[in-house]
Amino acid sequence: MAAAIIYLEKHSALSLQCQLRQKLVEAILSGVLPARKRLPSSRKLADQLKISRNTVLLAYQQLMDEGYLVSRERSGIFVNERIFDGKVELASAEELSSNKRNRWQHAFVRTGRNDSEFRVPLDWHRYPYPFLDNLFDTSLFPVHEWREASRLALGVREVNEWASFATDADDPQLLEEIRTKLLPSRGITASQNQILIVSSEQQALYLLCHLLVDSSKTVAIEEPGNPVFRQLVQNQQGQVHYQPVDDAGMQVDAGLAGCELVYVTPSHQLPTNATMPLERRQALLREAAAHNALIIEDDASLEHNFLGPPLPALRAIDRDDRVIYLSSLSKVLSPGLRLSYLVGPVEIINEARALRRILSGYPPRNNQRAMAYFLSLGHYDAFIRKLDNTLKSRWMALRDALNYNLHALAETVPAPGGTAYWVTVHDDIDVQELAGHAAREGILIEPIHQYYGTGIAPKNTFRLGITSLPKEKIKEGIRILAKLLRSLALPSASPAADIPLAYVSGDKLSSALANATLISSTVYGDPYTIDFNPNGDMVGRCGYQDEDCDTGRWWVEGDLLCRQWQEWVYGQRQQFRVVLIGNRIQWYNLDGELIVNGVLHAK
């Protein structure tokens, strides 16, 4: 019985002895191992768990010293019945009738459950290729720097100071660091009394919904958009207006006219990752002013732009004080730190602080002071610079892998950066089925149905994140995913299904490409061209302003087109079979998979 309830993690930070002790204490206190229950001998349990007998002996001895177990001569080791002295006996699960279990269900006036929500596996980090957004692998956390900040925050003088703040007060040192270091980087100016520390993005949204939403209010929400905020509005009986999203984020049109509150994620739209350009941000502010609407700007993930400078926050260009800004300190560090903040008019910050006191009180002040030191010592700025470099390398790696492996199978929303890609594949692909097959191959992708409040979600779209796996895993994970996509695609999904594959001979291929330009587009929508020079040089230009360029060599071997770039597609030597139909050109790899589909123009 004891061995059946014990699972020891070989790679845990805790020793096997400590893990064994924890599992036994948990089983005893929960009643799984009842009083007077005899435990296996140390030799037998060690054999069953495949661990050292000495490990079991030491765990048993410690539990006997603490009174959880007792040893009886020539009988064995038993659960001590006196461990429960002074405690009320718990009813067993069997004693709870079905009626009693369901009684509370009828009392709920609202629920926090969301049955459409995507459930991330608890052991997601065990998968080789977890393409999940906002789940950070531990290699990104600045352990030594955070330890230093925590040590300083727990000094005697520091503890005496932050422990003596007034009931509602946030740490003034942290408020000042946010005011002078973080907000200016987003173009925002604020005083300390315009900032409120909260434990999470979700708590901030709950406070704002409780203060600003009731059955008389219509709230504009992006569609697709943040399912947490949508549910909070519905729980407050608010009227939801679903505002469409395009490649530039939330659309600004007459649909916003009847809305008193607008919730928007302009930096990197959740979930499509689109970045709202400055012109549209200004148009949104004008539209809100015209109808006296308030705006909640959710910038919890910050604006990681890798192909251009970051844009100012809505709050930074707001001249009417109608934008409430939300950002997170822990989302980019570690969700376990539980620190976010609101910036807005003094009136709403005061009301939110009063409501916070009723609901949960202030976030732990030791964490607030540690974060203040983390900021003041320059660790946060250094960490963000390092994080930006790391995320950029991963984002570019995923961009290249998608373009190379999924060029004929998928499209993505164009964006200058972010931490996720919004991927649309052929209509014949069911993403739920794809996700199941992918998980069995060690790949985690995120279906997107939970982001659609209307329930009308495309079945052929999913998200790929970069925060949860190292750059080295991205290329191979996408290669496996592309293979799965091709295996699931119906014949109609093949771009070349309606044409005979008559490959061009080597002589004709050399003649057709020399002094010609190939025009096509990437999987993320950017146009690109390749100039083929007669001497074998090759020049590639990608983007609307040729932002990304590379050079390489091309040649013909037999009937195969060969090419090798300096940097693009990892600088690998590649071979293709080519189909020419008029000025249309298609390249197929040696497995018969369509890689390039474009137009060929003679110079």
TrEMBL record:
Residues 14-82 form the HTH gntR-type domain. SMART domains: HTH_GNTR (SM00345). GO terms for molecular function: transaminase activity. Keywords: Aminotransferase, DNA-binding, Pyridoxal phosphate, Transcription, Transcription regulation, Transferase. SUPFAM superfamilies: PLP-dependent transferases, Winged helix' DNA-binding domain. Pfam families: Aminotran_1_2, GntR. InterPro entries: Aminotransferase_I/II_large, HTH_trans_reg/aminotransferase, PyrdxlP-dep_Trfase, PyrdxlP-dep_Trfase_major, Tscrpt_reg_HTH_GntR, WH-like_DNA-bd_sf, WH_DNA-bd_sf. In the C-terminal section; belongs to the class-I pyridoxal-phosphate-dependent aminotransferase family. This is PLP-dependent aminotransferase family protein. It comes from Bowmanella yangjiangensis.
